[in-house]
Amino acid sequence: MKLSFIRGCFPSNLSIFVNPSISTNLLRPVCFSSMSSPPTSLKPQIPLFLRLPLHSASVSDLQKWHDWAKNLASSVGTTFLDSDDGPDSGILCRELKWLMEDAIEDHGVFSQMGIEDNQTKVRLRAGIEELYNLWKQRIEERWPFQYLVGCKHWRDLVLSVQDGVLILRPETELIVDLVADVVSNNEGLREGLLADLGTGTGALAIGIRRILGSRGRVIATDLSPVALSVAAFNVQKYGLQM
What we know:
By secondary structure, the chain is an alpha/beta fold. It folds into 2 domains: 3-45 and 153-237, 3-Layer(aba) Sandwich (Rossmann fold), CATH 3.40.50; 49-145, no CATH class. Helix content is 38%, strand content 14%. It has helices at residues 59-76, 79-84, 89-103, 128-140, 145-149, 173-185, 203-212, 225-237, and strands spanning 3-7, 30-33, 55-58, 121-124, 151-154, 157-160, 193-197, 217-221. Strands 1-7-8-2 form a 4-stranded parallel beta sheet, with helices on one face. Strand 5 and strand 6 (157-160) form a beta hairpin. The chain starts with a strand and ends in a 5-residue tail after the last helix. InterPro entries: RF_glutamine_MTase_cyano (IPR052663), SAM-dependent_MTases_sf (IPR029063).
């Protein structure tokens, strides 16, 4: 069985050796390996849109938060864009809309916003205080939006991300496309064993495993227990861990 390495982010003084004979003992389509902790040692952050709506607030309070957040975003103007190519007010306002969509269970409430002193209760996946803090982090601390909502859209996947795990760049999709092109020209490669070194969110392992089909195997490995925990969550979400 062939063993291929997709990528690696390891210090120069760290030697990596994987024995192909271990493939005879692999029972899972995507397996995890680490030199530190197993993927179950930490609980990953649950993406906001997957949380239970355990909080509530009035439409009026939600409107106050939204008006405050929008004013804060509008005050940025092009400051971030000019200083380090960051988001301008237009992008921040779109992110605010996405944050609301993730946080509010019933999107029908949007039509009620703007009604003065509306005390109708809205079910939320995060409390109003947390929403204030999240938006302060976004604007004042320049916290990446993906960390705020706990997910990243990548290809046709929605992957969990959090602080301690790199946010995927769009160009990463090209690696999956490359593997798809290679195996389409050589079906025998679908039965190979591939290793994603420094897997992070597990995106490449998941994307490539879906390309290979049931005959392929992917080992996702990382030195970070946080990354392994996030990757395990994403793998299980897409039904690849058996």
